[in-house]
Amino acid sequence: MPQVSEIMSNLPRSTQTYDQELALDPSYLKALEGAEPSDRKPSSEEQEQLDQAYIANYLARAPQRWEDQQRFMGEENERRRFVNLMHPHRIFRLLRRAGVDARIDAPDFYVWQTDDQTGKPILIKRPRTVGRLWLHNEAVEGRVGVSAWVWDKQLQQRVRRAVTSLQYPYGPEWSLMHFDEFDVPIAEKFRGWRTAMLHLIEADVLTEEEVDQAFGPVALDAVSLVYRKHLYVHRQRRWGLIQ
Consecutive sets of 10 residues in the chain, 243 residues long: mean pLDDT of each? Predict the structure, then answer.
């Protein structure tokens, strides 16, 4: 069972959990690392075969690696990314100071209502219709979801939807990644709050200007390069220059 932590707000506890974008299960990560090494050392011929198999597998997985993933790898790069830790409540407070209607209230609430057939009181879930985005009321495996009003092109109307998640209880500014033995990125080790803000910008929930006003502009360095590239593509798409 995933670990669930309640995020305290000024509302009764919500039963809704966030089950998307979860970090990999620790047991799965352990399995990816392979079985416990044997005490017997392979012969030189066996070692050569193992090396050749590894190289073949490494080359075969080249399409799964990112172009700029070296910026995420290594102790020094991780140290530069693991900065400015914040609790989700503080992130939402900073958004509110920037004029964004960001709420820690759960996106749904429950009311008692009399059942028409039985006449007995039953709990009915009601959607919250005020606010621009909400922090979910529970954390699952160290993540708490963020829902917002987004525009649905097919329905041609705004709908409430889970857009992203934040690390809980505290998350760094920039995401850190898990890589497998072939240097393929497989999951986020920690969700950076800048990553969550990027998802909200790309979903047209927030604007770049609002995020900059809340948290300040990013430094023009290697750490922020991927973030800035995504924003550039988003601007191009909004202006109709690309699909």
Answer: 48 33 47 60 85 89 86 91 97 97 87 88 86 92 94 90 96 94 91 97 96 96 92 92 82
Q: Quick check: is 195 in a domain?
A: yes
Q: How far apart are CA 193 and CA 165, in angstroms?
A: 8
Q: Is residue 42 part of a domain?
A: no
Residue type (1 letter), 73:
M
Are 138 and 14 spatial neighbours (Cβ–Cβ below 8 Å)?
Answer: yes
Domain count, the chain: 1
Residue 30 in domain = no
pLDDT at 44: 85
Note the pLDDT of residue 50: 87
Yes or no: say if 92 and 135 are a contact pair by the CB < 8 Å rule: yes
Give the pairing of strands 4-6 and 133-140. antiparallel
Let me know if residue 76 belongs to a domain. yes
How far is Cα 54 from Cα 45, in angstroms, rounded to an integer?
A: 14
**pLDDT number for residue 109:** 84
Which structural domain, as residue segments, surrounds residue 96? 68-106+132-238
Helix (H, G, I), strand (E, B) or coil at 223: coil
pLDDT at 2: 52
Return d(Cα 210, Cα 199) in angstroms, integer.
14
Answer yes or no: are the C-beta atoms of 200 and 206 closer than 8 Å. yes
CB 94 within 8 A of CB 206: no
Taking the chain, what is the end-to-end CA distance rounded to the nearest angstrom?
41
The size of the chain, in residues, is 243
Q: What is the pTM of this model?
A: 0.76
Cis geometry, peptide bond prior to residue 217 (ω within 30 degrees of 0):
no
